[in-house]
Amino acid sequence: MNNVLVFLFSLLIIQSSRILAKECHKEERDALLSFKAGISDPSNLLSSWHGDDCCNWWGVLCDNSTGYVVHLDLGNQYNSYWSVELSNSISSPYAFTGEINQSLLGLKHLTYIDLSLNDFSTTTIPEFIGSFENLQYLNLSYSSFTGEIPPQLGNLSKLFYLDLSNSKFTGKIPPELGNISNLIFLNLGRSYGSDVEDHVVSFILFSLKQCNNYAT
C-alpha cells in the first residue's frame, strides 16, 4: 500500500512540474528558427523544430521555472563512427553543415552548447560565442572548424569545459584563454597538426603565469 502511495505521489509531482513548466519565449524560438535556417540538416534531426514551445524541440532544454533555453545539445551522435573511428577529415552524410547564425545571441541564458561531430569546415568559430556570459560548457570538437580560435572565448569567465579538438586551426592559441579562471578541462588535440605540442606548452606556461598573478 505504501509503495502505491509513493508511486501515485511521484506521478502527481511529475504532472505538476509539467503543468507549472513555462513555455519558451517567443524571441528565443525565433532565434532558434533563424539558426535552423542557416543549417543544412541531411538527417532531419531538427524536424521537431516547429510549433510554439521550443522547450519540446530536439536538443533544446529549458529552465522549467523561467522558460529560458539553457542547453543547446546538437552534438551529432549519428556522426560518431565517421568522425571518431575513421577520421575527422572524412565528411559524414549525417553532419550539420552551414553557418552558425548570430541569432543565437538571443539565447542569453545558455549554460551549455554542444555542436560536436558536425561539419563546419567552411567556417570559423564565431566571435560572438564569447558573448555568452553564463556559458559553462562548450564542445565544438570533431566539427572541423578552420581559421584562428577567436580571442573572445577568453571572455567566458564561467566556462569550466572547453573541447575544440579535431579542428583545423591556424595561428596560435590566443593567450586570452588564460583568463578563463574556472576552466578545468581543455582539449585541443589534433587541431594544430604537428605543432600542437608547442602550442599547448606555450598555453600551459601562460596559464600558470596567470594563476600566479591571481595568487599574488
UniProtKB/TrEMBL annotation:
Q: Does the keyword NADP apply?
A: no
Provide the leader sequence positions.
1-21
SUPFAM superfamilies assigned: L domain-like (SSF52058)
> What Gene Ontology cellular component terms go with this record?
membrane
Name assigned to this protein: Leucine-rich repeat-containing N-terminal plant-type domain-containing protein
Q: Where in the cell is it found?
A: Membrane
Q: Which UniProt keywords apply?
A: Glycoprotein, Leucine-rich repeat, Membrane, Repeat, Signal, Transmembrane, Transmembrane helix
Q: Where is the Leucine-rich repeat-containing N-terminal plant-type domain?
A: 26-63
Its taxonomic path starts at: Eukaryota, Viridiplantae, Streptophyta, Embryophyta, Tracheophyta
Annotated membrane topology is:
Single-pass type I membrane protein
Q: What organism is listed for this UniProt entry?
A: Rhynchospora tenuis
Pfam hit, one: LRR_1
